[in-house]
Amino acid sequence: MKKRVIYYISILFFITGLAAFKADNFIVLPDEPLPFKPHGYYIAAVTDDRPAKSPVAQVVTLSADKKTAVQSADLQGGTLSAVRGYISRNLDKDASQRPVIVSIKEFKLTETSLPGNRVDGQVKLVLSFGLQKDYGFERLVDYRGGLHYIRPVSNSALAATQLRDCLKNGITYFNNWMKANTGTNIKLAQKVTFKFTDYAEPNENDTVYYSPKRPLVWDDFRATTPPSGPYAAMVIPAFGYDEQHEVVNGAIRVKLSMKVYLAKSASWVSGGGQTSYALNHEQRHFDITRIIARQFQQKVLNAGLTPDTWEAFIGMQYLDSYRDMHAMQTAYDSETAHGRNHSAQAEWNRRIDKLLGEGADTGLSR
Asked: Superkingdom of the source (predicted)?
C-alpha cells in the first residue's frame, strides 16, 4: 500500500549575528551527521529526477540600503552534487547491505516577506527510495515532507539549515521505514524457499486427483460422446498448482500445492473396451502426467532461484513442462499404437514404473 507521510515543522527564529545571504553566493548545506546507522541498506546512488533543474531556493535578501528582494540560489555544485556530497559525508555506508537509490523528485525553498522585517519560508521535498537492481530501479517508498519557518529578514543564511534539516528528515523517514519493513516486505527479501505438497480433495466429485492409492477404475469414465479416432478409451490428464507465499524474517516462503488430475466427464470408454489391459494403458497416461509434475518440482528446487527470479522462472518452467508432458504422451501413444502393440506397452510400463519410483524419492522442499 502506498504511504505518503507529510511532515511540517513550524519554527520561529529570532536569531541575529549570522552572516546575511548574498545573492551571488551558492547555498552550502552545513554538515551534521545523521544519528543512526542505516538499517540493512546503504545509499548507492542519488539521482535528480525533478522535471525542471532550476535553482532550489528563492530567498529574501536585504540590501545595504535595507531593501528586500527575492533572489534565486542553487546549492553549491548543483543540487545533485550537493545532496550526494551531504549523504556521503554524513551517513554511514556498508556496501555489504542492500544498495538503495535516492531519487530527488522535488526540492525547493520559497521565501516571502512579512510585515515587521520578518520572512516566511517553506521547504518542500519529495524523495523516492528504491533498490538498485541489475534491471534498474525498484521503488520501495516515497517521502513527501517539508518545513515551515519564520526568520528575521537579516538572517538569510538560515535557508541552508532548513534545506539540510528537510533532507535529514527524508533520510530518517526512510531508515524508519526500513526498520519496520525489512522482515516482511517481499521487495526486501533476501532468500526464497519452496515447499511442495500434493493437493487432495476430501470429497471427490467430477475431478480425480492423482494418488498412488487411488488408481483409475472404469466408473471414472463417464463421458457420453465418443472421441474422434479409433480409440477404445480415452483420458485427458493435466497438471497445475496452487501457489501461496509469505515473507518471514526476510525470506519468501513459497508453498506450491501440485494438482495432477483428470475429469471423469471428459474420460470415455467404449462399450466393449473395458478390459484390465485397456485400463492399464489409460492409467499410464495419468502416470506420465504425474512424472512430468514431479520433474517440474525438481527443476524448481534445483534452479537456485532468488527473490528476483522465482516467479518468472516458475511460470516459464510450467509452460516448458506442459510441453514436455504433451511430447511424452504423444510418444507413448505413438510407440504403443494406442496400446495395440503389446511388447511396446510392456516396455513403457517398465519405463514409467522406473520413473515413478525415482520421483517418489525426490525432495519436496528446499
From this structure: Bacteria
